[in-house]
Give the backbone structure.
Amino acid sequence: MYSDKCVEFNCIQRAHQNTLENYPMFLTFLLLGGLQFPKLSAVFGLIYLAGRVVYAHGYYTFNPGNRNRGAFGYIGFFGLLINTVIFGLTSSGFI
């Protein structure tokens, strides 16, 4: 799956694969959280996506430390997670 000779290709492929691994959770949280908090979920979604773009560009520099610049995207991800949990608790009658 990875190339032994082309480090640049490996970095780009790993950044892409990492994004694909997180994408289903992101879409699920965006959908479910957005049912109760549409505007807030949209803002959190944009923060997450901006973080993924910065993460990918940092990874494309072939310096592993640069990918940490996109860590702010997790603010959006965890915001969506909290929205989803609140939606679930509200829908089930616990709140």
User: Anything to note?
Assistant: The helical segments are 7-36, 38-60, 73-91. The two ends are 47 Å apart (CA to CA). The longest helix spans residues 7-36. Residues 45 and 79 are 9 Å apart (CA to CA).
